[in-house]
Amino acid sequence: KQEVTQIPAALSVPEGENLVLNCSFTDSAIYNLQWFRQDPGKGLTSLLLIQSSQREQTSGRLNASLDKSSGRSTLYIAASQPGDSATYLCAVKDTGFQKLVFGTGTRLLVSP
Amino acid sequence: SAVISQKPSRDICQRGTSLTIQCQVDSQVTMMFWYRQQPGQSLTLIATANQGSEATYESGFVIDKFPISRPNLTFSTLTVSNMSPEDSSIYLCSVVEGTGELFFGEGSRLTVL
Predict the structure, then answer these.
(1) Which residues of B have a CB under 8 Å from any CB of A?
(2) Fewest Cβ atoms nearer than 10 Å: which of A32, A34, B25, B54?
């Protein structure tokens, strides 16, 4: 059974810092991995999708990497801004069940 | 990407009543899903809404408690029946696009008193 873990659970940084969020998964037979952002009480916004054949994806200040063999993905946020404050979730889709398994999230606070 | 609208965005309900949540997508999609997010928790899949047939429920979720309709490829409803305070959650509708990317609606925040 796929399990997804995100470390750290919470992170507080000053504005302008570069930061890395971590996501690990137990079963490397994945179809894809997706990073989301969730603002308090709101739905999820898709940030990046990495297919199993890819090693990284970039969108603006965000870069996500995938290492299937080690069961890890990282989300790199460059030059963080207060508007980046949110909870970041990673989710893994298995090749077998085709269902998304979500991590518990990292709550990010960027202070001005 | 698909634009997904959910109604209501939030509601406060009395114990024992039922609430129906609507999900409207601006394009035809094959797969629609309903998730629940309990306070402080991550997302849990309730069911896959199948067009023209009964929904497929995940372990721990049953049709009597969470009846789902999917009359066409752009619309679905989730009903939370006979509510109790434990049902207080955010309920989220989502769809998958051709790339495999999952998109979510804004969620419906339910509080049961």
Answers:
(1) 1, 6, 41-43, 45, 90, 92, 94, 99-107, 109
(2) B54
Q: What is the pLDDT of residues A61-77, one digit of tens each?
A: 999 999 999 999 999 99
Chain B contact set for A105 (CB, 8 A): 42
User: Phi, psi (5° rounding) for residue B71?
Assistant: -70, -25
Q: b or e along A97-112 (b: 16 or more beta carbons within 10 Å of the residue's beta carbon)?
A: eeebbbbbbbbbebee
Q: For B58-95, what is each residue's pLDDT tens digit?
A: 999 999 999 999 999 999 999 999 999 999 999 999 99
CB atoms within 10 A of CB A4: 22
Contacts of A31 (CB under 8 A, 6+ apart): A51, A52, A93, A94, A95, A98, B100
Check CB contact under 8 Å for B42 and A103. yes
User: Which of A30-34, A38-42, B56-60, B80-84 has the least mean pLDDT?
Assistant: A38-42
Q: Are residues B104 and A100, on separate chains, in Cβ contact within 8 Å?
A: no
Q: What is the pLDDT of residue A91?
A: 96
* Average pLDDT over all residues of chain A: 94
